[in-house]
Specification:
The structure is a homodimer of 219-residue chains.
Chain A lengths: L11 H20 L10 H8 L13 H25 L4 H18 L1 H10 L5 H23 L9 H25 L4 H27 L6
Helix pairs in contact in A: 1-2, 3-4, 3-5, 3-6, 4-5, 4-7, 4-8, 5-7, 6-7, 7-8
Chain A binds a DNA duplex (30 and 30 nucleotides) through α1 and α2.
Chain lengths: 219, 219
DNA sequence: CCCTGTGGCAAACAGTTGTTTACTGAAACC
DNA sequence: GGTTTCAGTAAACAACTGTTTGCCACAGGG
């Protein structure tokens, strides 16, 4: 029933392989909602997928390698999202509102991905930590480039721009973490707490924006 | 050789018990430098201490319970430190320098504790996460109280003060994480990277401080 | 001085883990 | 159409896990 839905350029062979690979990633991500990567067992994952333990090795050498793959999957979508927000040139107040709403939306749509990144950013698996750090750094560079292009940054040193970008990225990650942690509670209070978090995030961004406007730019 | 160094009010019995309990905590903390709590085994800890696995249950029901104990131990010292910084009323510029230096110092002295908190703040063990969150919240309240007492906060709403306190606490945790992550590299670059992190942190705090000064206080 | 409370021990338990081995069947290639 | 490639299998491996049991040695209070 789905033989025509696979990209024509891929053989049936490779398509099937990619399918189980994705199944492994999905199963791992689901299991990681309630534990951390360094305690996630290979057999645990294959059991959920319904595949023999040895089959795991056809796709990943380690659980660490699977983790790195999850990092890429998780941060790719975020990349797209924030790029869209940065693209539109608008009033500061409005870009703040849009950013916070975009983050909230992203968390609503990919809660497991966000949780995974927040958890493993300082987690027990070195390779995964480094993958996340590298991706967030590229992320910061991107934000810095966007900031530098704005007239509000005239006369700013590159380091100062990068510093501000870091502040924004850190704040974004903290806000996303707060959202995803709040959604773990019962859905009754979920809405209220979500709005409280968004409100605080907006005020914090407004304060930062204010500090930015009064930053002593070297001539 | 140390029979006279124990507090006289404790019997030999309780003193010995506390000693092995502390040994368990220390061993766990050391092991947690390279893995996360949810993957740390009970036997692993007792093996390092040199004690039978069953002995563990005389002190903790779970690894989770041990984790909560570690949270208290880890954040107690930080509490003391930041209280000292907040106590002294000084020029904004100087309080920033002192704060960053105090954080750097604290990380240098208790790297394992800081790493543990950063790792388990979003880690896989619910009870530990909640313990950390609760402690950080109390922490934020304390900072908020100190901020409210300053004349720079005249006319601020309580929510705004709490929002600013949250920003400071988050920033403190992020900075501490950055320090401890940097110290994992080779000691050659350690000094340089440490100064870079401190420098960025100071500039970020300065920008926040600037935003604070220009925040529209309701009359 | 004896008795009780208890921190720690050794042993055994059923499960689970990661990894290797030789294999099968079907897609892909010439 | 025969042959090669390879994703997935089943079974076995030693090593490890958390937890329970009965026991001992000994500090502390009477």
């Amino acid at each position: 029933m789905n033989s025509s839905s696979t990209p024509a350029t891929l053989g049936v062979r490779q398509a099937q392989k990619l399918k189980t690979r994705q199944a492994l990633l999905d199963a791992a991500l689901k299991l990681l909602e309630e534990q951390s990567l360094s305690s996630l067992g290979l057999r645990e994952v294959t059991r959920v997928v319904g595949v023999a333990p040895a089959a795991f090795y056809r796709h990943f050498r380690d659980m660490a390698e699977l983790g790195v793959a999850l990092v890429e999957e998780s941060l790719a979508s975020l990349h797209v999202m924030i790029r869209a927000v940065l693209a539109e040139q608008q009033e500061a107040e409005e870009v703040i509102d849009r950013s916070v709403e975009a983050v909230a939306d992203h968390v609503r749509r990919h809660p497991a991905h966000v949780r995974f990144v927040a958890r493993e950013r300082h987690g027990g698996v070195r390779a995964v930590r480094e993958a996340i750090a590298a991706e967030l750094a590229r992320f910061g560079d991107e934000v810095a480039a966007a900031l530098a292009a704005q007239e509000a940054s005239r006369g700013w040193s590159a380091e100062d721009v990068r510093m501000l970008a870091g502040l924004y990225v850190d704040h974004l990650v903290m806000t996303a973490s707060a959202f995803v942690e709040a959604s773990a509670d019962d859905p009754a209070e979920e809405r209220a707490e979500e709005r409280a978090i968004a409100d605080t995030a907006r005020r914090q961004l407004r304060l930062i924006s204010l500090g930015r406007r009064h930053w002593p730019a070297a001539s």
